[in-house]
Amino acid sequence: MSKKFINDPELIVEEMIAGYVHAYQDRLTNLEGSHVILRKNQKKTGKVSVIIGNGSGHEPACIGFVGYNMLDANAYGGMFAAPSPDTLYDAIESSDQGAGICVLISNHAGDVINSKMAMDMAEDDDLVCKSVILYDDIASAPKDQPEERRGTAGTLFNYKITGSFAEEGHDLEAVCKMAEKVRDNTRTLTVATLPGTSPITGIPMFEIADDEVEIGMGVHGEAAAHNMKMDSSKVIAKVMAEKLLEDRPFVAGEKVAILVNGCGQTTQMEMLIFYNDVREILEAAGIEVIKPAIGNFITTQEMGGIALAFCAMDDEMQKQWEKPTNAPGFAW
Fold first, then answer.
1. Any domain includes 329
2. Where in the sequence is the domain holding 38, given as residue range(s)?
3. Which residues of the chain, if any, have pLDDT below 50?
4. For a Cys staple, 225 with which of 151, 180, 216, 253, CB 3.0–4.6 Å?
């Protein structure tokens, strides 16, 4: 059995949310009777709302991304399970501020199906909403089939940029176009070193040899594209950066933000070393590196590894990316 600070496995999500909402009650609240985190004291201001639903177990994603200049609401499901259509509908309805709702959907089957059902329910009640499906994981499908790719850690760029853009008062069509632009300019690849353990079963989510890493692992332990022997940060950073640079490609003269996302167990020391190695590769290619995000943002329990994401930005995207936010999981 894994060693985790939990009580009843059946109450993990409920107790986690109770602690979270109490800790950040100055800015967040839980919608009574539903699994929805909301920004506190939201009013019908004529602002487009930006929301997402996701399974629990990836904290701070995505409860930690609700806040000013970020998300307006997060519908959360059970452990590694998409929220129900009813929960997503509650998030749509409760976050409506009179200008429509942009529903961001991370490209996983349950999330897509349940979100579309929720939107149908909302439209039946005359709520105006549009969806944007997010996909960024280059290991999960060929680059000529981007819509088949999974949504992974690079979706963080969308939560911040699209949420901040909506804060300025742009209409629903413009907000959704921004979400599409961010998605289309983002690429992610993950390397795993150690498995995470399900807090419900106590069983590791996958197996990996002691002297190997797996390139292309999914956020739920989905199979990796290939494995390689464990090596230095510089070697692994070069392998991953080259795959990302080839896929889009990112070219000299562009401005690119780097996300070094720890998968749960990876230390800040390791992430900073890895970031520095990646930064040197991009700068050597003539790419301007702008404000990075380095930390454990989208995790899989205590999984060891790093999700590396690049997002090419124009001036407008950079402005929104760098604006401050009070979202507890991404405050800067």
1. no
2. 9-184
3. none
4. 216
Tokens encoding 251: 């070219």
Q: Closest Cα partner for 260 from 247, 277, 243?
A: 277
3-state DSSP call for residue 300? coil
Shared domain for 193 and 275, answered yes or no, is yes
In the DSSP assignment, the letter for residue 130 is E
Check residue 225 and give its pLDDT.
67
170 and 191 housed in the same domain: no
CA nearest neighbour of 225 among 247, 210, 203, 204:
247
Active site residue ranges? 58, 220
CB 51 within 8 A of CB 101: yes
CA 18, CA 21: separation in Å to the nearest integer? 6
Q: What does the pLDDT read at residue 44?
A: 72
pLDDT value at residue 308: 98
- How many whole angstroms from its chain centre is CA 253? 27
Cβ of 305: how many Cβ atoms within 10 Å? 27
H or E element that contains 304: strand 304-313
Q: Are residues 179 and 40 in the same domain?
A: yes
- Contact indicator for 228, 239 with CB cutoff of 8 Å: yes
94 contacts 73 by C-beta, under 8 angstroms? yes
My answer on whether 44 and 117 are in the same domain is yes
Other Cβ atoms closer than 10 A to 279 = 18
What does the pLDDT read at residue 92?
Answer: 98
pTM, two decimals, is 0.96
For residues 157 and 267, state if they share a domain.
no
- Cβ atoms within 10 Å of 8's Cβ, excluding its own: 8
pLDDT tens string 146-165 = 999 999 999 999 999 999 99
Q: Are residues 130 and 212 in the same domain?
A: no
